[in-house]
Design brief:
The structure holds two protein chains of two kinds. Helix content of chain A is about 70%, strand content about 5%. By secondary structure, chain A is an all-alpha fold. A two-stranded antiparallel ribbon of chain A has the order 1-2. In chain A, about 55% of the residues are buried. Chain B has a single domain, classed as Helix Hairpins (Orthogonal Bundle), CATH 1.10.287. Chain B contains three helices and no strands. Classes of the chains: A mainly alpha, B mainly alpha. Chains A and B meet through helix 25 of A and helix 1 of B. Chain B: It is an enzyme of class 7 (translocase). Chain B: One of its GO terms (biological process) is ATP synthesis coupled electron transport. Chain B: It is a multi-pass membrane protein. Chain B: Its EC number is 7.1.1.-.
Chain lengths: ~650, ~100
């Protein structure tokens, strides 16, 4: 794997989606729908092929040379000793995994969009934004310089904003887009401050340089803790973790393919990638790691509870996404980077699948999203249901489906390597999350597809066209067999059954002793016990859900009715986070602005501004007298001025 | 007579023509006459250019004179078009009446 190969391949994979975005943006409006579709999906297909080549390069590289960087061009150079920023790219196992997820899942979602957006007039705009998003995401994961990474980080927020607000004639979509953007910018600010601190301390933003200089931070010291906390806050904003999580459910205002691509598979997992990528720093900041782990698992519990109480099909999946990302954040917080990345990859597959299958349902019911009005869809949407079920099994962590391997892998790691004195506390919470996941996953499936139709519209539902079914089916196969294939492969090479191959592939990246792929062997007795208990938790949740909701007329709020009224109320209203933020941030700011308008502006600002504007109008009134409209007057001014000029020249020359 | 001997007379002629033109612009009311006066001024400048070119033994004066002629031709086209349009609207051709642009 030579530097020039990496440079050429990265250049290709970056330019292809960008070219697609520009082409559709500039001339898409005059092209036919078929051509627009071809440009939109074709550019991603080409990028996917390039990504496959890049993966092959990484796999084929000899051990010890799995990582290569290339310097595309120098962007900023402040001389010797000053800051130098190059547009550099890194290809290593970690970025290769992300490339495959982004372009692979991205390609299927693009194909799906062809069908989903069939009747939308803004198809060129849609594909242009989608390609822009893929480009931004690739910049983010390929960047070998923190500044370039931040550029990608901000660009994905921009494309997310554009796509959430894609149907801009809906006020709710516009508000949701703005909310997502502002929340993410709060995270960007934290990230930029972290970058400042790193520059001040190390003097470079180049990521290999930062990691090489990581030992210069005092381990556990204040500076590294602050830097890592700021990086983590950036990750929380992007990955919708507490307390910056409120934008994700609202982001469901965007078209469903957008939810599948950005708000399930790729962008929201960028926070996990960031922490995994900066593991040399996090390994030296145990306090920040503990904070990350606690926030992750806390968000996972909270979002799981909310998911149980919601009745909008997309919002249920959105909260489930938030919960699963919480698990990934927990994993990277306890140093289980490979396990976190594995869950990221499998989650991208089965969550994109769930969103697209939900999209089929919404499409078939003409934009109905309330699960109380569905039920009994399995007769008409047989194929979609099969795919949805595969995703549900994977999400709930039913053994041998993809989610089982990744989730049990990271929970088992948590029990043996968790933070603090009582790692088993967080592990037990993790088992609780397994139960919750099983509950809400099967609740969704049962209320949507099983039981009796709750509205007449269900009878008229038609199965989605092939262009929307095939991508979903491919993902369904993957979520059913991906984990199993890797698991069997792991057994063949005598490694850990759950995440052996994957961890081994990523091991060149996570080489430092503390963050080795598996610092404690997962095949020990404790870990096996942990896996069995966790699996039993998942099965318990699934079984309970089947008992409660597999009925002719399931009541989506069956569980909550038995609890004290306050609890379901809290969960249904998402623990009132929106209201709290409204009261704490929005209202005081609005009040401040009002006060400024009523008091500060008329008293203090206007007097000065008024003087200037009065002076200007007086000057204007005076000059206006000379604008008579008579050519004769103007000619006289000109000739008089020429005369003055001549006299002045004569005087000056004769001196 | 050599060119240099004629030089002061040529400059005087140019100055005279320019003054006549400027005066015409200022006091005549018929736009066409004003226009011709402007041409007179331009040509006075042309005489200066050409005579200086002669005096300094360089072609640049003539080049500039040609430039002025070209620009003057273009200006005539625009100006005459404007005048005809004003005439078509049914106005009398008196430039003192055309003062709508003063507000």
């Amino acid at each position: 794997m030579t530097t020039s190969t990496v440079a050429v391949l990265s250049g290709l994979i970056l330019l292809l989606p960008l070219a697609g975005a520009l082409l559709n943006a500039l001339v898409g409006w005059r092209l036919s729908r078929r051509v627009v579709n071809a440009i939109g999906t074709g550019s991603i297909l080409a990028a996917f092929l390039v990504a496959c080549v890049m993966l092959a390069q990484v796999v084929g590289a000899p051990d010890g040379a799995k990582s290569a960087s290339a310097h595309l061009w120098q962007w900023l150079d402040l001389g010797t000793g000053g800051l130098r920023v190059g547009v550099d790219v890194t290809l290593d196992p970690l970025s290769a995994v992300m490339l495959m997820v982004i372009t692979g899942v991205g390609l299927l979602i693009h194909v799906y969009s062809v069908g989903y957006m069939e009747h939308d007039r803004g198809i060129a705009r849609f594909f242009s934004y989608m390609n822009l998003f893929i480009f931004s995401m690739l910049v983010l994961v390929l960047a070998a310089d923190l500044l370039i990474l931040i550029i990608g980080w901000a660009l994905v927020a921009l494309s997310s904003y554009l796509l959430i607000g894609f149907w801009y004639e809906r006020p709710s979509a516009v508000v949701a887009a703005r909310k997502a953007f502002i929340t993410q910018v709060a995270g960007d600010v934290a990230l930029v401050i972290a970058a400042f601190l790193i520059v001040v301390h190390i003097g470079t933003l180049s990521m290999p340089g930062i990691f090489a200089a990581a030992p210069s931070f005092a381990s556990g010291g204040l500076l590294i803790t602050v830097v890592c906390s700021l990086l983590a806050i950036g990750a929380f904003a992007k990955s919708a973790q507490f307390p910056l999580h409120t934008w994700l459910p609202d982001a469901m205002e965007g078209p469903t393919p957008v939810s599948a691509l950005i708000h399930a598979a790729t962008m929201v997992t960028a926070g996990v990638y960031l922490i995994a990528r900066f593991h040399p720093l996090f390994d030296r900041a145990p306090v920040a790691q503990g904070m990350v782990a606690c926030v992750g698992i806390g968000t996972a519990v909270m979002a799981g509870v909310i998911a149980l109480s919601q009745v909008d099909i997309k919002r249920v999946i959105a909260y489930s996404t938030m919960s699963q990302i919480g698990l990934m954040i927990f994993a990277v917080g306890i140093g289980a980077y490979s396990a976190g990345m594995f869950h990221l990859a499998t989650h991208a597959v089965f969550k994109a699948l769930l969103f697209m299958a939900a999209g089929n349902v919404i499409h078939a019911l003409h934009d109905e999203q309330d699960i109380r009005l569905m039920g009994g869809l399995s007769t008409n949407l047989r194929r979609t249901e099969l795919c949805f079920l595969s995703g549900t099994f994977a999400l709930a962590g039913i053994p041998l489906f993809a989610g089982f391997f990744s989730k049990e892998g990271l929970l088992g790691f948590g029990l043996t390597n968790g933070p603090g004195a009582f790692p088993w506390v967080l592990y037990l919470v993790g088992v609780g999350i397994n139960v919750l996941t099983g509950l809400y996953a099967f609740r969704l499936w049962a209320t949507v597809f099983r039981g009796e139709p709750q509205t007449a519209r269900v009878y008229a539902a038609r199965e989605a066209p092939r262009v929307m079914l095939v991508p979903v089916a491919i993902l369904a196969l993957l979520s059913a067999f991906l984990g199993l294939i890797l698991g069997v492969w792991s057994l063949v090479i005598h490694d850990n059954f759950l995440i052996g191959v994957f961890a081994r592939f990523l091991s060149p990246v996570f080489t430092t002793p503390a963050s080795g792929p598996l610092a404690v062997d997962l095949s020990t007795g404790t870990a096996i016990l942990a896996g069995i208990v966790g699996t039993l938790g998942s099965l318990l949740g699934a079984g309970l859900a089947a008992r409660i909701w597999l009925q002719r007329n399931p009541d989506p709020s069956a569980v909550t009715a038995r609890l004290p009224r306050a609890l379901p109320q809290l969960a249904y209203n998402k623990f009132y986070f929106d209201e709290i933020y409204d009261a704490l941030l929005v209202r005081p700011l609005v009040a401040l602005a009002r006060a400024a308008r009523r008091v500060v502006e008329p008293r203090f600002m206007n007097s000065g501004v008024q003087t200037v504007s009065d002076a200007c109008s007086e000057l204007g009134a005076w000059v206006r007298d000379y604008q008579t409209g008579l050519i004769r007057d103007y000619a006289s001014y000109m000739i008089a001025a020429a005369g003055v000029f001549v006299v002045a020249t004569l005087v000056l020359v004769s001196r | 007579m050599t060119a240099s001997a004629n030089f002061p007379y040529l400059l005087a002629l140019a100055a005279f023509l320019f003054s006549v033109g400027a005066l015409g612009v200022l006091i005549r009311r018929n736009p066409i006459v004003v226009f011709m006066c402007i041409e007179l001024m331009l040509n006075a400048v042309n005489i200066v250019f050409v005579s200086y070119g002669r005096f300094l033994n360089s072609e640049e004066g003539q080049v500039f004179a040609f430039m002025v002629i070209v620009v003057a031709a273009a200006e005539v086209v625009v100006g005459l078009a404007l005048i005809t349009q004003v005439f078509r609207v049914g106005r009398e051709l008196d430039i003192d009446d055309l003062d709508e642009l003063n507000e």
